[in-house]
Protein backbone atom coordinates (compact mmCIF):
# COMPACT_ATOMS: atom_id res chain seq x y z
CA UNK A 1 0.00 0.00 0.00
CA UNK A 2 1.47 3.31 -1.07
CA UNK A 3 1.09 6.25 1.28
CA UNK A 4 0.89 9.79 0.07
CA UNK A 5 2.56 12.79 1.61
CA UNK A 6 -0.50 15.03 1.36
CA UNK A 7 -2.31 13.97 4.59
CA UNK A 8 0.92 14.36 6.57
CA UNK A 9 1.58 17.78 5.07
CA UNK A 10 -1.97 18.94 5.79
CA UNK A 11 -1.73 17.70 9.40
CA UNK A 12 1.56 19.53 9.95
CA UNK A 13 0.17 22.70 8.37
CA UNK A 14 -2.91 22.76 10.58
CA UNK A 15 -0.92 21.95 13.70
CA UNK A 16 1.39 24.93 13.05
CA UNK A 17 -1.41 27.37 12.15
CA UNK A 18 -1.71 28.83 15.69
CA UNK A 19 2.02 29.58 15.69
CA UNK A 20 1.71 31.38 12.38
CA UNK A 21 -1.36 33.31 13.55
CA UNK A 22 0.48 34.64 16.62
CA UNK A 23 3.50 35.57 14.50
CA UNK A 24 1.61 38.16 12.47
CA UNK A 25 3.33 41.53 12.77
CA UNK A 26 1.23 44.46 13.93
CA UNK A 27 3.09 47.05 11.87
CA UNK A 28 5.81 47.44 9.25
CA UNK A 29 8.63 47.68 11.80
CA UNK A 30 7.69 44.33 13.32
CA UNK A 31 7.52 42.77 9.84
CA UNK A 32 11.02 44.02 9.02
CA UNK A 33 12.35 42.77 12.36
CA UNK A 34 10.75 39.37 11.73
CA UNK A 35 12.35 39.11 8.27
CA UNK A 36 15.74 40.25 9.59
CA UNK A 37 15.46 37.71 12.40
CA UNK A 38 15.15 35.01 9.76
CA UNK A 39 17.87 36.38 7.46
CA UNK A 40 20.61 36.92 10.08
CA UNK A 41 21.21 33.25 11.03
CA UNK A 42 21.06 32.20 7.38
CA UNK A 43 23.50 34.94 6.46
CA UNK A 44 25.91 33.80 9.16
CA UNK A 45 25.86 30.24 7.79
CA UNK A 46 26.35 31.43 4.20
CA UNK A 47 29.20 33.74 5.16
CA UNK A 48 30.89 30.93 7.10
CA UNK A 49 30.62 28.66 4.07
CA UNK A 50 32.13 31.31 1.82
CA UNK A 51 35.06 31.78 4.20
CA UNK A 52 35.59 28.00 4.27
CA UNK A 53 35.68 27.93 0.45
CA UNK A 54 38.28 30.69 0.45
CA UNK A 55 40.39 28.95 3.11
CA UNK A 56 40.14 25.62 1.29
CA UNK A 57 41.39 27.34 -1.89
CA UNK A 58 44.22 28.92 0.06
CA UNK A 59 45.21 25.56 1.55
CA UNK A 60 45.05 23.93 -1.87
CA UNK A 61 47.22 26.72 -3.30
CA UNK A 62 49.82 26.54 -0.52
CA UNK A 63 50.03 22.75 -0.21
CA UNK A 64 49.95 21.94 -3.95
CA UNK A 65 53.67 21.04 -3.96
CA UNK A 66 54.30 22.37 -7.44
CA UNK A 67 51.33 20.71 -9.16
CA UNK A 68 50.13 23.28 -11.71
CA UNK A 69 46.57 21.92 -11.78
CA UNK A 70 46.18 22.15 -7.98
CA UNK A 71 47.65 25.66 -7.97
CA UNK A 72 45.13 26.76 -10.59
CA UNK A 73 42.23 25.13 -8.73
CA UNK A 74 43.33 26.87 -5.53
CA UNK A 75 43.45 30.22 -7.32
CA UNK A 76 39.96 29.66 -8.71
CA UNK A 77 38.55 28.77 -5.28
CA UNK A 78 40.18 31.83 -3.70
CA UNK A 79 38.87 34.03 -6.53
CA UNK A 80 35.29 32.81 -6.13
CA UNK A 81 35.62 33.02 -2.35
CA UNK A 82 36.57 36.70 -2.61
CA UNK A 83 33.73 37.35 -5.06
CA UNK A 84 31.32 35.56 -2.70
CA UNK A 85 32.56 37.57 0.28
CA UNK A 86 32.08 40.80 -1.66
CA UNK A 87 28.54 39.88 -2.69
CA UNK A 88 27.56 38.65 0.78
CA UNK A 89 28.98 41.69 2.57
CA UNK A 90 27.33 43.99 0.03
CA UNK A 91 24.03 42.26 0.72
CA UNK A 92 24.59 42.67 4.46
CA UNK A 93 25.32 46.38 3.98
CA UNK A 94 22.21 46.80 1.85
CA UNK A 95 20.05 45.14 4.52
CA UNK A 96 21.59 47.39 7.19
CA UNK A 97 20.96 50.46 5.02
CA UNK A 98 17.34 49.52 4.39
CA UNK A 99 16.83 48.70 8.07
CA UNK A 100 18.19 52.07 9.17
CA UNK A 101 16.20 53.87 6.50
CA UNK A 102 12.79 52.35 7.17
CA UNK A 103 12.94 51.77 10.92
Which descriptors apply to this entry?
0% strand, mainly alpha, 103 residues
Number of strands: 0
Percent helix, as a range, is over 70%
Average pLDDT figure = 83
Q: Could you give a short account of the major beta sheet?
A: none
Give the overall shape, derived from the CA principal axes: flat
Count of runs of 4 or more consecutive helical residues = 3
- Helices and strands, in order, run as HHH
Q: What structural class is derived from the secondary structure elements?
A: mainly alpha
Poorly predicted tracts of residues: none
Radius of gyration: 22 Å
| N→C terminal distance | 54 Å
Strand content: under 5%
What does this structure look like?
By secondary structure, this protein is mostly helical. Helices cover 84% and strands 0% of the residues. It contains 3 helices and no strands. The protein has helices at residues 6-22, 28-62, 68-102. Helix 2 packs antiparallel against helix 3. The mean pLDDT is 83.
Secondary structure: elements and pairs:
Layout: H1 6-22, H2 28-62, H3 68-102
Helix pairs in contact: 2-3
In short:
This protein has 3 helices and no strands.
Amino acid sequence: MKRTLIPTTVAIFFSLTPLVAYAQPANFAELVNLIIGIINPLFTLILGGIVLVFLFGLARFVFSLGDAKSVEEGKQLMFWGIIGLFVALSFWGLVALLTNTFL
